[in-house]
């Protein structure tokens, strides 16, 4: 007869939280993104420096320019050198450097274009046109909306200054269109390639994370299987000699001690099988399994369960049910089992009509009891805190 008085609070089995896993994947993705930006910025730094040294200085030496043009080139070179302080160390650019650099680059572009003669716009002498876009890429590579806005403002500013310098003919319009399209498409192509690399890096991180999760699941499954085999082997270690003695006729099945040993082995195995079942309340399930084995032998067992379920580790459940297994396997006619659970402790007590040797503390579980005439009381207690 089983009387279960379980509290109203429901029990939820262990839930595998994804927060940490997702957080780990997010950190890996950000780290991969940072490496991509650092590598591309290093390339852009080299491209910008080469263009400023070849096209900028070359144009200033080849064509007549206003003195302000030399100042604008010095500003662009200064911005590039300032960015190099962080780019070479593969660190992201500070916000103040980005904002100040964009303002300086756009102002330099406006000044360099303003001091050009009207016929020199978008020609070989217009050295600043192609270089400004690369400087903006270097500064705003990881800020795509701001980069596109700055590039658009650069194009509008340059074309507007050209239109204000005079009325262009059809050939000049076509030439400007080719120059603007060729330069901006190359720079936007570099941006698209960077986004493609970022996507590949994110996919690689996801694949690596999935492989790691698969390896972790495989390792956990293997460990669980090894623990399961070890548990069965430990139980069968005492069962196999018993079976061998029975088969060889060494033991008499009619002997009370033999029957008690057989009952003990059966109860231990049944509890072991129940331990590996996926149930919402493992401790009650294992206690009930032990009770059922005793009832099949004809022992009248009453079970009372009180208190809300609490999570109990597997090894602690083994220690809690150890005295129960011994007492029920030795019981002759009657036994009474009680399971009490509170926030501070878990108790498993049994009273049986058999004389059983009372054990002591088993690891984290305290065992106490005593013999009263033909009855034995055993109690196992585990403190949760």
TrEMBL record:
Domain of life: Bacteria
Key words, A-Z: Membrane, Transmembrane, Transmembrane helix
Protein name (record): Signal transduction histidine kinase
Region (Disordered): 1-30
Biased composition (Basic and acidic residues): 18-30
Presence of keyword Transcription regulation: no
Transmembrane segments: 42-63, 69-89, 96-119, 146-165, 171-193
Organism expressing this protein natively: Saccharothrix carnea
Keyword presence, Transcription regulation: no
């Amino acid at each position: 007869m089983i009387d279960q008085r379980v509290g109203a609070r429901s029990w939820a089995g262990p839930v595998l939280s994804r927060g940490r896993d997702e957080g780990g994947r997010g950190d890996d993705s950000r780290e991969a993104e940072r490496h991509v930006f650092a590598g591309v910025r290093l390339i852009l730094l080299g491209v910008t420096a080469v263009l400023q040294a070849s096209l900028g200085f070359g144009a200033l030496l080849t064509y007549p320019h206003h003195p302000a043009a030399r100042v604008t080139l010095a500003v662009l070179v200064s911005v590039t050198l300032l960015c190099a302080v962080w780019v070479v160390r593969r660190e992201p650019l500070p916000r103040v450097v980005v904002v100040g650099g964009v303002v300086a680059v756009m102002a330099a572009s406006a000044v360099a274009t303003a001091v050009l003669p009207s016929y020199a716009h978008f020609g070989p002498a217009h050295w600043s046109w192609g270089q400004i876009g690369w400087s903006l890429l270097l500064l705003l590579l990881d800020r795509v909306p701001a980069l596109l806005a700055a590039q658009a403002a650069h194009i509008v500013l340059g074309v507007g200054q050209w239109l204000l310098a005079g009325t262009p003919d059809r050939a000049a319009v076509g030439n400007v269109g080719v120059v603007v399209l060729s330069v901006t498409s190359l720079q936007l192509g570099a941006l698209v390639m960077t986004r493609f690399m970022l996507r590949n890096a994110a996919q690689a991180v996801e694949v690596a994370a999935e492989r790691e999760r698969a390896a972790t699941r495989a390792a956990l499954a293997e460990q669980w299987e090894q623990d399961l085999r070890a548990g069965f082997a430990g139980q069968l270690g005492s069962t196999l000699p018993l079976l061998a003695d029975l088969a060889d006729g060494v033991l008499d099945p009619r002997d009370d001690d033999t029957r008690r040993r057989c009952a003990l082995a059966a109860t231990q195995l049944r509890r072991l099988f129940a331990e590996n079942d996926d149930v919402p309340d493992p401790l009650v399930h294992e206690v009930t399994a032990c009770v059922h084995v005793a009832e099949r032998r004809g022992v009248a067992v009453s079970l009372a369960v009180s208190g809300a379920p609490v999570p109990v580790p597997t090894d602690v459940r083994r220690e809690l049910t150890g005295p129960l297994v011994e007492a029920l396997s030795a019981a002759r006619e009657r036994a009474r089992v009680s399971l009490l659970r509170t926030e501070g402790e878990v108790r498993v007590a049994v009273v049986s009509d058999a004389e059983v040797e009372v054990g002591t503390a088993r690891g984290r579980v305290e065992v106490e009891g005593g013999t009263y005439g033909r009855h034995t009381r055993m109690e196992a207690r585990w403190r949760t805190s």
